[in-house]
């Protein structure tokens, strides 16, 4: 039986400095019983290619583990990177936590 959704707070900067701790959090999330994992970007205002690699890994893990991955409160700068790389087409992006947590 699935547990409550698991929300991961993204750091202010998703870059090389955050890589190790974020990989650990993501791995723990996908090892949990949660069937829905939400990345909360509310405080994140920068993401580079190393930060994007976390998203790529999480997308792969979500498919493999049959879990849903959603992104919420993605700001303009991070959203631009997702658009340029076309990840906005494969990421489930929401503008509100209620929407991200909705069962679907």
UniProtKB/TrEMBL annotation:
This is Anti-sigma factor antagonist. It holds the Pfam family STAS. Residues 1-104 form the STAS domain. Belongs to the anti-sigma-factor antagonist family. One of its GO terms (molecular function) is anti-sigma factor antagonist activity. SUPFAM superfamilies: SpoIIaa-like (SSF52091). InterPro entries: Anti-sigma_ant, STAS_dom, STAS_dom_sf. It comes from the Bacteria.
């Amino acid at each position: 039986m699935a547990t409550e959704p698991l929300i991961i707070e993204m750091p202010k900067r998703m870059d090389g400095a955050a890589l190790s701790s974020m990989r650990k959090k993501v791995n723990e999330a996908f090892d949990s019983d949660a069937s829905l994992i939400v990345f909360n970007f509310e405080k994140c205002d920068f993401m580079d290619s190393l930060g994007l690699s976390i998203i790529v890994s999480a997308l792969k893990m979500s498919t493999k583990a049959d879990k849903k991955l959603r992104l919420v409160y993605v700001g303009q700068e991070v959203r631009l990177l997702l658009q340029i790389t076309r990840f906005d087409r494969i990421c489930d992006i929401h503008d509100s936590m209620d929407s991200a947590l909705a069962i679907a």
